[in-house]
Amino acid sequence: MLVYLLKSTASMAILFLFYKLLLEKESMHVFKRFFLLTSILVSLVIPSIVFVEYVEPAVTTYTTTEPFEDTTIASWSPERSGDINVINWPLLGWTVYMLGVLGFGFRFFKHLSQILIRINRNPKRKGKSSIKVLLQEQLPPHTFFRYIFLNMAKFDANEIPKEVILHEEVHSKQHHSIDVIFIEFMQVILWFNPMMFFFKKSIKLNHEFLADSAVLKKITSPSKYQNTLLSYLSQSDRKKHQSVAIANAITYSSIRLNVLGKKFEFMSPYRQVKKRFTVMKKRTSKKAVLLRNVLVLPIFALLLFAFSTNKEVIRPTSGTTSLNFEHTARSIEIIILKDGSYLVEGTKANKHNLVEIVNTLHNDVTPEIRRKIMNIHLKSSEEITREEVWFFYDSLLDYGFYRIVSREQVVDLSKGNKPLAIENSKNIANSIQQKNIQEGASRKLMAEYNAFAKKYNDVSMDERNVKSEDILRMEHIYHRMSKDQKNGVEPLPRYADPLQESQEGATPEQVAQYNALAKKYNAMIETEEDIFIKKSDVELLEYLHSIMTEEQKSTSEPFPDFPEPPKPPVPPVHEVVEIQQEVEKLAALMVEKEVEVRQQKSEMEEMEIEMERQEVLMKEQAVALEKQDKLMEKESLELQEQVLKMEKQARKMERGVPAPPPPPEPESPLEFVQKMKKKNAIFYHEGKKISADQAIKLLKNSNDVNINSKGSKGKRPIIEISTGPSQ
Q1: Label partner for 105 (CA 20 to 30 A): which of 170, 180, 381, 673?
Q2: Which helix (H) or strand (E) holds 600?
Q3: pLDDT digits over 426-477, tens only?
Q4: Burial level of 408, CB count in 10 A (0-12/13-18/19+)?
């Protein structure tokens, strides 16, 4: 995942650098719009592309070495246990990522809900292609899909220039809000990627280029339009309404970061407007447009070559696998933890993903070779049950192994061995239900069961002779199946319980099997040389002898007089001392850890005190920063005046035409009423008709007055005055 993120970020950086150097200042705004959006998607897709190349296997001749006979069962080591507290870095990383997603997601939906609330709570005027939402707040004009947000008082007084409304209508018609919603959503998902901030800035700035270009095609005075843009540079109201950030506004706001009370601004609004003025004058030739379009294809091809993944796969060969390969013995260590999970070569696993994790190991050899060299070592601090060994046997059979080694038994696949039979079928069902081994049986187990069941179901009940090993195996698989699986397989064969057939006697085959084993062990005991007794053979002899009749016992080999099994060796004294020393070391280590934890707690408390002190300092810095903001606003006004002077000089140099006067200052409510008095207007206060002098006196005595003007051509204007809050 980390490699993917690095490749994706690098791809975005290269494409963004190409945009900044060769595309941003050109007048090919539609192409730039789709280039920016496509660059994000391409950067996410290319690192996930994998090119597979099939290669022929190298033919070499060497011999296979027999795996070492490692029948020693390794003792359980506490240091290898998965119960030791370690930092789970993947979990920590995902936690931090989800916190970031929640934070940015909350911010996104908060701004979106604020815009929807404005749409629902304010009056609207429908037009041909857009809907104008009239606001009480002093916000700059901005657009969200079909909705254009304008100040109600200025709109009713026709104080909003036609160029501004045309600018916002272009945003609406060209569906720029779709791009904004897309980049805002991508920023929520990839909040940690710094390139998303730069792409967001460029996408929104290009929207302004598109709107400016469309407006300039329909007006006759570009200089008047530029002066209008300069008049909307104030950001004082915008800071109070951050939801405008996910809309398209007449003056695109810069990206700001606030870190520990310090504000960082990537580009001031004055520089943005200056860049827009520069792009307005830029004319890109058709040859330059074609050249830049063609250059995009090699850039994408180079990124595909650099950041995609090449994987070589050995082409499987037909026929039998050559056994002339020389491989040393290999092993996989699986530690069974107390909670039922596993550590597979240090990787945490459970019963559902065990096979998936094991399949990632030793992929340089085929299953045929693994069946000759691979040892599976099972380790646990407790006894490993037969059911657990059967689970590993069934799960890893397709993966391929030479043998399974545990403290209780060794399953040697090369000798045709299988794990020890489980004592009875009732214990099988109970054990599987208690441990919840797996949800349903695998296809391989179901195929094995169907072969057994069909074999015995095809024979009549009278002639049916079911082996005890087959009974246990069939019931073991049958109890693993889900209800749906049981309905789709052969029915479980009926048979008499072999553990209760002693009165009927053993079959001739069972008697012959008993005689062969009994003769073998009787001869071994008589010579008293190389006595090697298998527990499974003893259990089988006891079972066969128990179902034989007295007549069969008299004519068969006598039951071997097995010696008592040797007692487990007592560990040497020095080993006991070493173990005690290890325990003492662990106890001392635990004491040290406890002391460290206490120290860390005290350090945390000191850090909290320091953080509180830092918070007080940050508040003091915030007060100082407010003073700096006022100074910066003053400087920005001076800079605005300088920009105006520069524009005037530029117009004089280019056209020799004097600059138009700045827009007039809005008249005060008192001046407005006095002007309406001259026009013989009718005045109302709280629904009651009053004289013009009374209206003037009311305005002089109170500052909190709302004025609403109504009237049409040929009629006296009607002025409504209210002293309460505006609705």
Answers
A1: 170
A2: helix 573-655
A3: 444 444 444 434 457 778 888 888 888 888 888 776 666 777 667 767 777 8
A4: middle
* Assigned token pair, 458: 């095809």
Distance CA 445, CA 170 (A): 67
Q: Which helix (H) or strand (E) holds 404?
A: strand 403-405
Using CA atoms in the order 95, 101, 107, 108, what is the torsion angle rounded to 10 degrees? -170
Structural contact between residues 199 and 40, judged by C-beta atoms closer than 8 angstroms: yes
CA distance 269 to 639: 11
Task: State pLDDT tens for residues 151-192.
Answer: 888 888 888 888 888 998 999 899 999 999 999 999 999 999
CA distance 13 to 28: 21
Q: Helix, strand or coil for residue 391?
A: helix
Range list of β-strands (E), 111-173 = 124-126, 131-135, 142-144, 147-151
CA nearest 106: which of 259, 263, 266, 242? Answer: 242
The CB density around residue 48, as the number of other CB atoms within 10 Å, is: 12
Cβ 124 vs Cβ 131: under 8 Å: yes
Give the HSE-up count for residue 207: Cα atoms under 13 Å, Cβ half-sphere: 32
**Which amino acid is it at 7?**
K
> 237: Cβ–Cβ under 8 A, 6 or more apart, which residues?
137, 138, 139, 140
Cα dihedral: 672, 673, 679, 682 (round 10): 140
The widest CA-to-CA distance across the chain, in whole angstroms, is: 140
Alpha-carbon distance of 210 to 677, in angstroms, equals: 45
Low-confidence ranges of the chain (pLDDT < 70): 55-86, 233-270, 312-326, 422-439, 461-464, 468-469, 472, 494-504, 528-531, 565-576, 654-660, 712-714, 724-727
Look up tokens 């700059």; give the residue.
140
Neighbours of 8 (CB within 10 A): 22
Cα separation, 116 vs 120, whole angstroms: 6
Residues 6+ apart with CB under 8 A from 73: 405, 406, 407
Q: 482 and 440 in contact (C-beta within 8 Å)? A: yes
Our measurement of the distance from residue 168's CA atom to the centroid of its chain's CA atoms, rounded to an integer in Å, reads 37
Whole-angstrom Cα distance, residue 150 to residue 169? 12
The b/e string for 16-33 (b: 16+ C-beta within 10 A; e otherwise) is bebbeeebbebbbbeebb
C-alpha closest to that of 246 among 170, 188, 323, 327: 188
Those residues with Cβ within 8 angstroms of residue 458's Cβ, 6 or more apart along the chain or in another chain: none
Q: Which residues contact 376 (CB under 8 A, 6 or more apart)?
A: 331, 332, 334, 392, 396, 401, 403, 404, 405
Q: What is the DSSP letter of 505?
A: -
If you write DSSP's letter for every residue of 522-533 in order, what string do you get? HHHHHHTSS---
Q: How many helices (H) and strands (E) does the chain have?
A: 23, 19
Q: How many whole angstroms separate alpha carbon 51 and alpha carbon 44? A: 16
Nearest to 176 by CA among 133, 196, 206: 206
- DSSP letter at 129 equals S
Provide the strand spans (E) within 182-261. Answer: 248-249, 256-259
**DSSP character at residue 319:** S
Amino acid of residue 368: E
Give the three-class secondary structure for 509. Answer: helix
What residue has token string 């049958």? 478
| 718-722 and 682-685 beta bridge pairing | parallel
To which residue do tokens 């007080």 refer? 616
